[in-house]
TrEMBL record, chain A:
An annotated Gene Ontology molecular function: peptide transmembrane transporter activity
Keyword Transmembrane helix recorded: no
Protein name: Peptide/nickel transport system substrate-binding protein
Domain Solute-binding protein family: 86-441
Family: Belongs to the bacterial solute-binding protein 5 family.
A Pfam family assignment: SBP_bac_5
Residues in the signal sequence: 1-25
PANTHER family xrefs: OLIGOPEPTIDE-BINDING PROTEIN APPA (PTHR30290:SF9), PERIPLASMIC BINDING COMPONENT OF ABC TRANSPORTER (PTHR30290)
InterPro entries on file: Peptide/Ni-bd (IPR030678), SBP_5 (IPR039424), SBP_5_dom (IPR000914)
UniProtKB/TrEMBL annotation, chain B:
Family listed: Belongs to the binding-protein-dependent transport system permease family.
Keyword Metal-binding listed: no
Membrane topology summary: Multi-pass membrane protein
Matching CDD domains: TM_PBP2
Compartments in which it is found: Cell membrane
Main location: membrane
InterPro entries: BPD_transp_1_N, MetI-like, MetI-like_sf
Protein name: Peptide/nickel transport system permease protein
A GO CC term attached to the entry: plasma membrane
Organism lineage string: Bacteria, Bacillati, Bacillota, Bacilli, Bacillales
Length: 520, 305
């Protein structure tokens, strides 16, 4: 009677035992050959986990931080940004500004691509012409000011711009300015190039398993000396709790984009810590100054700014990961105004007084549109702002929207009195951010116009005197901070989970140079 | 039989046609892919230029028929995100998803058959209650939660299995359990009720009264006959496996079709969404067809002609 069950039970147990037996064995094997437990001098493989995979192997068609972190290590540019965001020559030996629109560059000798071909002026010309002419490339809009590239000899070239361009060197250090090998690219075409991309950077391509990992290995003949790591693996792990899980078990050395709900888990664990850096992204309120809207009155705009306690937002909701700001140009970006960084104004009584002066003694009602789930804790921040404004007598009609519904409102200029958004600066130059205050860009969105700002902005855009140019940008920011077409809130932080096995310092541009990371 | 097959295959055409339209409308309504591809402060001209380059500023119906026209010649179009043809992107993901689905099915079968038979035999006993109760729990647990819990317990606290990724056999264990548990729960209940029904049939009683051993009665007479509904539910579960794979693959960063589809929907990547849904639809339909054919093998009384 009972035998069939017994038989079944025993068979079942055996299967289970087999399964767990196999797994134990192979997991030990995995540990041995994987990176787990590798420490000190033995550690030659670096593993990084990002929240999204790269989408292409074409460095000029990416426009994402996740992509840039891979390409920066595979390709070279004429210039690069050091850890302090200063522009430094990378492929360039020497350069001169021949006249207002002509720049001459002498390339370094002995730079080779991963297939052994030397890097010449022809390759630079080919790469820059590709990105300045091909409209389908995502980096194209940034490169429209380049007019002509002239090859003088193997290692010398001239870049001619369509007018004085003070930001040229910064652009040449930006993503999209990567040098790709002309001969190889023309030989194999884009499709094959994506399967086996070749650059001249410190790390060369091994394989890309989509939505899983990119594997790179050291390029031993790199012109700047052999790279630090033998192998670098960049994994894509979209689910944040899994990313943290990999970090805690030693599967990865650095995990990017740790969301606030995981901070305690990362900080509470031995062997890993949360490392916070700055970004160029500034959270701000876009204010409608259109005639007829209540926020057309500068007193109302000032009252809104005074009613919001940016420091409290950063300290409470964001747990200190952020810096209150009064300008869209944070420290580290060229043209930033130091008076307006790490600064805020807060005075509820004065806000109430200003509102009364503006004729809103009994309070007023405005609409605030904000995204939910687009930036860390964006919904919570918007709710806190709404209640802060409520204290000053401003009733806020809060519209929290999903990311793409939110972008539809923003892009179609259907924003009402206030709209909360985070804006970053891809060029790390004030010109990039301040364009929002020109008539051309402001029309329809903030409808802000100030003749002086207009003139300062256009003068600065053609000004090759760096010191003067910076002063012009700083002056614009001082005017904006008083007139408030944008009410800036805080600079967003970036959060990385980092294993104690490695030493890592986040950069303002959120790029990661593998060779800057060292073993502890 | 041949006629039946042809009729079933012809049914595919209107189904796929409707699917492409529904998916197209949904993705179209979900928002503008261009604003997701460019940074927030790209100018209107930049956005317009990209829209133009991608053919997104044409009217809706024009876009749809353009898409259909290409589709007839086997071209799903180019992925916005990957700037590559969509269909190969989808097809290269199939092995990973098949691997996960097969392993989950194995987990489900290994769990469900013994548990189902056991609880049918011990009907209303404590063990039966435990198993049926457990199966409710197994069905009710969301994949997402179960996956994260398994990672927490078996990969982070006790580091028995790797947290995520695909590669060796051990990488497969946690995702397969996550995805297989729900299926196992449903199958257990079904095998139980199907067995119960059959155990009360006259021929079982006859077999028992003839003195046939219990083992033989259960396995030769009862179990085989209880298989027909099990085959049905198994094949129905395969489409559940696909939808479950969307979540499970994301949790374990398993590079399969599910993760590709989730990323494509998030990026409003129409070509990839269409190609993925198309491939999934064909898979489900073909599996249903195979199920019908398997019935015939199990029960010769079923005849399709």
């Amino acid at each position: 009677m009972r035998s069939p069950y017994k038989l079944f039970f025993v068979a079942y147990l055996m299967v289970m035992l087999l399964v767990s037996g196999c797994s134990n064995q192979s997991s030990t094997r995995e540990n041995e050959k994987g990176t787990k437990g590798e420490t000190g001098k033995d550690k030659t493989t670096l593993v990084l986990a990002q929240s999204a995979d790269i989408t292409t192997m074409d460095p000029q068609n990416s426009l994402s931080t996740t992509g840039d972190r891979v390409f920066r290590n595979m390709f070279n540019r004429l210039f690069y940004r050091d850890a302090n965001m200063e522009v430094q020559p990378e492929l360039v030996e020497a350069y001169e500004n021949v006249d207002d629109v002509t720049w001459k560059f002498k390339l370094k000798q002995g730079v080779t691509f991963h297939n052994g071909d030397p890097l010449t002026a022809e390759d630079v010309k080919f790469s820059l012409e590709r990105v300045m002419n091909d409209q389908t490339l995502k980096e194209y809009p940034y490169f429209t000011q380049l007019a002509k590239i002239k090859v003088i000899d193997d290692l010398t070239l001239e870049i001619i711009t369509d007018g004085p361009m003070p930001t040229l060197l910064r652009l040449l250090a930006k993503s999209g300015a990567d040098v790709i090998p002309k001969k190889y690219f023309e030989e194999v075409g884009l499709k094959e190039f994506q399967k086996k991309p070749i650059g001249s950077g410190p790390y060369q391509f091994v394989e890309w398993k989509r939505d899983d990992r990119v594997v790179l290995e050291a390029y031993p003949d790199y012109f700047d000396g052999a790279p630090k790591w033998k192998e670098v693996i960049v994994r894509a792990i979209p689910e944040s709790s899994t990313r943290v899980g990999e970090l805690l078990t030693g599967g990865v050395d650095i995990a990017t984009d740790i969301p606030p709900n995981e901070w305690d888990r990362v900080n509470g664990d031995e062997g890993v810590s949360l490392v916070t850096g700055d970004t160029t992204r500034i959270m701000l309120l876009v204010v409608r100054t259109t005639e007829g809207s209540v926020t057309a009155d500068p007193k109302v705009r000032e009252a809104i700014d005074l009613a919001i306690n940016e420091k409290a937002i950063v300290d409470s909701v964001l747990k200190g990961t952020g810096v209150p700001v009064r300008s869209r140009v944070p420290e580290g970006v060229i043209g930033s105004n130091p008076d307006l960084y790490d600064a805020y104004v807060y005075d509820v009584e004065k806000a109430k007084k200003l509102l009364a002066e503006a004729g809103f003694k009994d309070g007023l009602e405005i609409t605030l549109t904000a995204p939910k789930g687009r930036y860390p804790l964006d919904g919570e921040v918007a709710q806190l702002i709404a209640s802060m404004l409520g204290e000053a007598g401003i009733k806020v009609n809060l519209k929290l929207l999903e990311s793409s519904a939110f972008l539809d409102i923003y892009n179609s200029n259907s924003n009402e009195e206030l709209l909360m958004i985070g804006l970053a600066d891809g060029l790390l130059d004030a010109s990039y951010s301040l364009v929002h205050y020109t008539k051309e860009r402001a029309t329809g969105q903030t409808d802000y116009y100030n003749e002086k700002v207009e003139k300062l902005y256009h003068d600065a855009g053609r000004n090759l005197n760096e010191e003067e140019r910076i002063k012009q940008y700083q002056e614009i920011q001082a005017i904006i901070a008083e007139e408030r077409p944008h009410i800036t809130l805080f600079q967003q932080g970036s959060n990385y989970g980092v294993s104690d096995r490695v030493e890592f310092k986040p950069r303002l541009d959120e790029v990661i140079n593998f060779s800057d990371i060292s073993v502890k | 039989m041949k006629k039946y097959l042809i009729r079933r295959l012809l049914q595919l055409i209107p189904v796929l046609f409707i699917i492409t339209f529904v998916v197209f409308v949904l993705v179209y309504l979900a928002g503008d892919p261009v604003s997701l591809m460019l940074p927030e402060d790209a100018s209107e001209e930049d956005r317009e230029a990209l829209r133009e380059a991608l053919g997104l500023n044409e009217p809706f119906l024009y876009q749809y028929f353009h898409f259909l026209g290409d589709l007839i010649s086997g071209d799903f179009g180019t992925s916005f995100r990957y700037s590559q043809e969509a269909l190969p992107l989808v097809l290269e993901r199939l092995p990973a998803t098949f691997e996960l689905a097969a392993a989950s099915m194995l987990v489900a079968i290994v769990l469900a058959i013994p548990l189902g038979i056991f609880s049918a035999r011990k009907r209303n006993s404590f063990v039966d209650l435990f198993i049926t109760g457990g199966s409710v729990l197994g069905k009710a647990m969301p994949n997402f939660w179960l996956g994260i819990m398994l990672i927490l317990m078996l990969a982070v606290n006790y580091q028995i299995f790797p947290v995520s990724g695909r590669g060796t056999f051990v990488h497969l264990v946690l995702p397969a359990i996550t995805l297989g548990t729900g299926v196992a729960a449903e199958m257990t209940r079904l095998i139980r009720s199907s067995m119960l029904e059959i155990l009360h049939q006259d021929y079982i009683r006859t077999a028992k009264s003839k003195g046939v051993s219990d083992t033989l009665v259960i396995f030769k007479h009862a179990f085989r006959n209880s298989l027909i509904p099990v085959v049905t539910i198994t094949s129905l579960q395969i489409s559940h496996l696909v939808s479950g794979a969307l979540i499970t693959e994301t949790v374990f960063s398993w590079p399969g079709l599910g993760q590709l589809l989730v990323q494509a929907v998030n990026g409003r990547d129409m070509a990839v969404v269409q190609a993925a849904v198309f491939v999934i639809a064909i898979l489900v339909i073909v599996i249903n067809l195979i199920t019908d054919l398997v019935y015939r093998l199990l029960d010769p009384r079923i005849n399709y002609s």
